[in-house]
Amino acid sequence: MASTLTRDAPALAFTHRFEPATDGAASPLLLLHGTGGDETDLLPLGRMIAPGAALLSPRGQVSEGGMPRFFRRLAEGVFDEADVVRRAHDLADFIAAARTAYGLAAPVAVGFSNGANIAALVMLLRPETLAGAVLLRPMVPLADPPAGDLPSTPVLMLSGAMDPIVPAENAARLATLLSARGGKVEHKTLPASHGLTSADLTAARDFIARIGR
Predict the structure, then answer these.
(1) Whose CA is closest to 153, among 171, 117, 129, 189?
(2) Residue 2 has what pLDDT?
(3) Which residues pair with 135 in a beta bridge?
(4) CB contact set of 104 (below 8 Å; sequence gap of 6+)
(5) What are the DSSP E strand ranges found in the chain?
(6) Distances (CA, A) of 172 to 60, 106, 168, 204
(7) Coil, helix or strand for 170?
(8) Among positive and negative, which fits the CA dihedral 58, 200, 50, 131?
(9) pTM of the shown model
């Protein structure tokens, strides 16, 4: 399958990988890595959960000790909120430019950890950007999230029962927040830690199959 590494600026300002669709009926996926990942990390996951879908995978533009992220944090679980908002808008702008460049429909985001957090905020700030989301180990991205309307946007949240990073209360609060904004949220807590398991892959694949056409 063809894959391109692109660093075009300013419109496609994120270094990213793009794999074109081989199944024209499949919704494109936006793959958003966790801390320390890059634009290649979630490509295998994308191929497994949505065979034939176009894959768009940007690299986070923030470096934390040499590890890419999508926004700055001040400590574990403590985010630089002004930076979070700015970076979410930057990502939404990139997605819009990539849709034009590659001829894509609105993608379904698949984000892990830091990538899941920024995907959640993109949905809240710029709800027209994404057709849905799979949020793997997400947290509430802002202490005072913006008002927004997610008209029936499908969202799958997958939390880990033994996750040492994301408190159960925080994940539940995010599910409630997205639901209150109109999202069609499914929140599942799996017998897992912060890392992904085969149960995550199965749940994500089933969800994408239901909403992705």
Answers:
(1) 129
(2) 47
(3) 111, 157
(4) 28, 54, 56, 98
(5) 4-6, 16-19, 29-32, 55-58, 62-64, 67-69, 73-75, 78-79, 108-112, 132-136, 154-160, 184-190
(6) 26, 26, 6, 19
(7) helix
(8) negative
(9) 0.92
DSSP for 65-102?
TTEEESS-EEETTEE-HHHHHHHHHHHHHHHHHHHHHH
Region of poorest pLDDT, from 25-34, 68-77, 83-92: 68-77
Which is it for strands 16-19 and 29-32: parallel, antiparallel or unpaired?
Answer: unpaired
pLDDT band of residue 27 (cuts 50, 70, 90) is very high
Q: Would you state the torsion angle of the CA atoms of residues 146, 169, 165, 93, taken in this order, to the nearest 10 degrees? A: -20
**Which of helix, strand or coil describes residue 49?**
helix
Secondary structure of residue 146 in the 3-state scheme: coil
Please list the active-site residues. Answer: 113, 163, 194
Complete domains list, the chain, with CATH: 4-211 (3.40.50.1820)
> Rounded to whole angstroms, how far apart are CA atoms 161 and 197?
12
Residue length, the chain?
213
**Looking at residue 137, what DSSP letter applies?**
S
* Top-confidence residue, 8 or 69: 69
**Encoding tokens for residue 40?**
């290649």
pLDDT at 10 over 50: no
Predicted local confidence at residue 8, as pLDDT: 47
> Tokens representing 50?
């949505």
Structure tokens at 98: 């990539």
Q: Could you identify the residue written with the tokens 């669709």?
A: 21
